[in-house]
């Protein structure tokens, strides 16, 4: 997310100094040229070995340029004291940086260990196990969005998209540069400008994107923006400048300020004016108007906040002047970056933060608006969020909009989304049933107990002849225990969906009793008449041989004395368990084969890669195995009783690549196997 960081303010590196003479790498670092700083620090480390200061700076350089594996390499040396300085203490900020880097690499359990250390050093209460569970729930929740990249992305960075009728406005550093043009040191690319583009009904560009206005765009940065509803007023972020020249504070930082322009009768924008509550010593950026247009929200690192960047608002008075900035408080703001506010038509607040628990780097959150203010932020989860930066969300109607992410490359891309689920916490009516496994009939007089994932009792009762009960509960994991006379007791964990009157069934098996032989039956031998042999169904050996010879559809192979259907890989996207389109044809063919051999029973075994905690991967693999079984049952009409499913987590990789796996190796390890358990 290189390009937007000018809108977040350069790190406070100006106080950096060594007792020794500053090197070339130090000078690059102080200027914010992290690309060249990293190159020069590599040379210094090769010549002089590791020092605490250089390890911190090279880690920061790689972190700021999103080279996380390289940042991790040096952070690991820093936090374990592998440097020649006698004092092995290091700044606590590197524990937070390690948390972010490991999260970006998908190593959430290790990441939270460093977040725990960071919180402990700040004497803040923090529960590691709770944090891991919360993060894993973000990843395992049902998708509330579908996302896809827009067609007008380029090799440059694009973000901050806003749709007005058929036009889309966005921020980018795509402007071609020639020799002698100034470039932004952080990215080595052009400065940011605001663009607009028109798309056809298929969302394809009709023409090339053009700048919004030569009056608005300058040689410096112009970034996130918002329009009034009548499109006559534009608020936007811009490098603090006067007469085209940057203005610097006492620490030599060029802040980002908010500007306002008005659309004139001739269709041209007026010269931008700086809002009066800007201050040369700090940044005010990322403007957002509420529906009534009497409040302007923004992000700022002004003094008196909670640390980093906080979200504020000012009242817009009837005369057009502004009230004092008001901080949204500790419920929303953290000690880190809380930025990119957006207010939807209902007044709900969306924003990005790396201070609240999330999937890594900046995640997008929402706070529902109530009568007494905004409620607690909710992480919007995958696929909107990823382990990288996800930010600048906007809606252009009730369910559709844009956001930006650097999940696919070093720079930023714009993604379009459709909201398909409920994003706010709601209670749903869930129907629970207790049935006989063999007959699927209700089991009368069943004793049931429902508990949440923390062991709190939600419901306990003895049911009547219709073994059903209803509860209005929040989505999440719940344990249902059931027992009845003559049946084996059972407990099952259900994931309650965001859907009313969904049915959740627990099946019980009858207790099997061995028949007792009578003494006289044992003692007396009755001679049998010879009965001619009856025609019987093919024996197991015959079916086994037939399966091994049948090459129509998925073949059967033998491995370690067991039979398996040899299917093409059933691939799953990272952190997902839904059946991909490319795997549906494979499973459709498999269902036909199973229909041919109705006496064959199978076990579906699902495996994950090694990213994420053991417990998370175990749950994920179970969901993938269950998803495969459900597809075969619901779409392929295979009797569900013929299929068992088992999740193995990350315990049995095909490629044991440890912590340095390529994406291709991870994909190979994410797989399903189909073992024949009965025929």
From TrEMBL:
Keyword Signal annotated: yes
Localisation: Cell outer membrane
InterPro entries the record matches: Bact_OuterMem_StrucFunc, OMP_bac, OmpA-like, OmpA-like_sf, TPR-like_helical_dom_sf
PROSITE patterns associated with the record: OMPA_2
Protein keywords: Cell outer membrane, Membrane, Signal
Database matches in Pfam families: OmpA
Residue intervals of the OmpA-like domain: 559-679
CDD domains, A to Z: OmpA_C-like
Broad class of the protein's primary localization: membrane
N-terminal signal peptide: 1-19
PANTHER family given in the database record: LIPOPROTEIN YIAD-RELATED, STATOR ELEMENT OF FLAGELLAR MOTOR COMPLEX
Protein name per its UniProtKB record: OmpA family protein
């Amino acid at each position: 997310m290189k390009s937007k960081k000018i809108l977040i303010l350069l790190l406070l590196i100006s106080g950096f100094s060594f007792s020794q003479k500053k090197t070339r790498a130090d000078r690059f670092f102080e200027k914010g040229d992290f690309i060249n700083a990293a190159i020069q620090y590599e040379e210094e480390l090769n010549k002089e070995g590791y020092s605490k200061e250089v390890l911190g700076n090279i880690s920061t350089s790689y972190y700021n340029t999103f080279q996380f594996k390289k940042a991790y390499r040096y952070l690991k040396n820093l936090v374990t004291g592998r440097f020649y300085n006698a004092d092995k203490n290091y700044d606590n900020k590197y524990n937070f940086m390690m948390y972010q880097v490991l999260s970006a690499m998908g190593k959430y359990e290790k990441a939270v260990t460093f977040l725990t250390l960071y919180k402990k050093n700040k004497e803040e209460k923090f529960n590691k196990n709770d944090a891991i569970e919360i993060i894993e729930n973000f990843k395992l929740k049902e998708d509330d969005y579908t996302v896809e990249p827009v067609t007008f992305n380029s090799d440059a960075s694009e973000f901050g998209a806003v749709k007005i009728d058929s036009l889309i406005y966005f921020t980018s550093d795509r402007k071609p540069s020639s020799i002698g043009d100034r470039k932004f040191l952080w990215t080595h690319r052009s400065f940011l400008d605001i663009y607009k583009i028109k798309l056809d009904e298929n969302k394809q560009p009709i023409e090339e994107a053009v700048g919004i206005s030569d009056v608005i765009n300058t040689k410096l940065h112009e970034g996130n923006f918002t329009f009034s509803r009548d499109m006559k007023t534009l608020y936007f972020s811009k490098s603090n400048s006067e007469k085209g020249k940057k203005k610097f504070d006492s620490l030599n930082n060029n802040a980002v300020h908010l500007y306002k322009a008005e659309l004139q009768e001739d269709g041209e924008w007026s010269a931008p004016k700086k809002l009066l509550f800007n201050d040369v010593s700090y940044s005010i950026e990322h403007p957002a108007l509420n529906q009534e247009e009497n409040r302007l929200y923004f992000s700022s690192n002004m003094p008196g906040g909670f640390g980093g960047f906080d979200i504020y608002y000012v009242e817009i008075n009837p005369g057009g002047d502004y009230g004092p900035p008001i901080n949204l408080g500790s419920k929303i703001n953290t000690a880190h970056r809380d930025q990119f506010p957006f207010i939807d038509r209902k007044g709900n607040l969306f924003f990005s933060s790396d201070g609240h628990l999330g999937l890594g780097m900046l995640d997008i959150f929402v706070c529902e608006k109530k009568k007494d203010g905004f409620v607690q932020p909710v992480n919007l989860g995958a696929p909107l969020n990823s382990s990288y930066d996800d930010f600048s969300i906007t809606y252009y109607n009730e369910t559709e909009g844009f956001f930006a992410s650097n999940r696919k490359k070093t720079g930023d891309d714009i993604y379009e989304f459709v909201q398909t689920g409920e994003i706010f916490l709601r209670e749903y009516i869930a129907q629970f049933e207790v049935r006989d496994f063999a007959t699927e009939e209700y089991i009368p007089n069943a004793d049931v107990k429902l508990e949440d994932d923390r062991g709190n009792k939600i419901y306990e009762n003895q049911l009547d002849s219709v073994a059903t009960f209803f509860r209005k509960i929040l989505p999440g994991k719940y344990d249902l225990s059931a027992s009845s006379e003559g049946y084996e007791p059972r407990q099952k964990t259900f994931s309650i969906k965001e859907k009313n009157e969904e049915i959740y069934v627990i099946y019980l098996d009858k207790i099997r009793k061995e028949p007792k032989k009578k003494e006289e039956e044992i003692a007396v031998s009755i001679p049998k008449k010879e009965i001619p042999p009856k025609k019987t169904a093919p024996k197991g050996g015959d079916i086994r041989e037939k399966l091994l010879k049948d090459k129509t559809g998925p073949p059967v192979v033998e491995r370690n004395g067991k039979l398996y259907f040899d299917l093409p890989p059933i691939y799953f996207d990272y952190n997902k368990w839904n059946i991909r389109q490319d795997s549906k044809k494979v499973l459709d063919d498999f269902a036909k084969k199973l229909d041919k051999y109705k006496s064959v029973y199978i076990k579906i075994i699902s495996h994950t890669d090694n990213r994420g905690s053991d417990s998370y991967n175990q749950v994920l693999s179970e969901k993938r195995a269950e998803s495969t079984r459900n597809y075969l049952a619901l779409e392929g009409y295979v009797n569900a009783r013929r299929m068992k499913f088992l999740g193995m987590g990350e315990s049995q990789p095909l490629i044991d690549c440890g912590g340095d796996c390529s994406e291709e190796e991870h994909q190979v390890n994410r797989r399903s196997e189909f073992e024949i358990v009965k025929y």
